Amino acid sequence: MPRSRGVRCGHVPDWLSSAGFILVPTKTANQTLLLVIACCVVGYIMPTLYLTRKMRFRQERIVRSLPDVMDLLWLCVEAGLGFDAASYGSRKRWKTRNPDIAAELLLVNRKVNAGVTREEALRARTPNRCRGAAHLCST
Predict the structure, then answer these.
(1) If you average pLDDT over residues 73-91, what whole number do you get?
(2) Tally: H helices and E strands in the chain
(3) Could you give the 3-state DSSP secondary structure of residue 28?
(4) pTM
(5) Scanning 30, 93, 99, 107, which has the fewest C-beta atoms within 10 Å of its C-beta?
């Protein structure tokens, strides 16, 4: 079986502890042990903090662009397009401005094309804190 290249998530504390040995000179065994524990804790916590921050910023970008996307969807549907065609056209227009909302629209389109009802596809993309407003999908 070929070995994977790079650092896997399970080996981050090992990698950090070995980097700590190289970068920080220690004089006693207690300092070495403290350095290893600190590097392991940092290696365990940092990926979670990084992903949480990236997720929060992505959600904020989506929420900021949602009124404009909804307006464009409304205009397309009022002009006579079906909802699927309107969401596809909106996705194409928003691909360069906000790729996050374009990816969400693409996922909804793919689920609808796979046979999931439109209401279920839209509800699946709704965060748990917004479930109260999800009844708008059915109207």
Answers:
(1) 86
(2) 5, 0
(3) coil
(4) 0.61
(5) 30
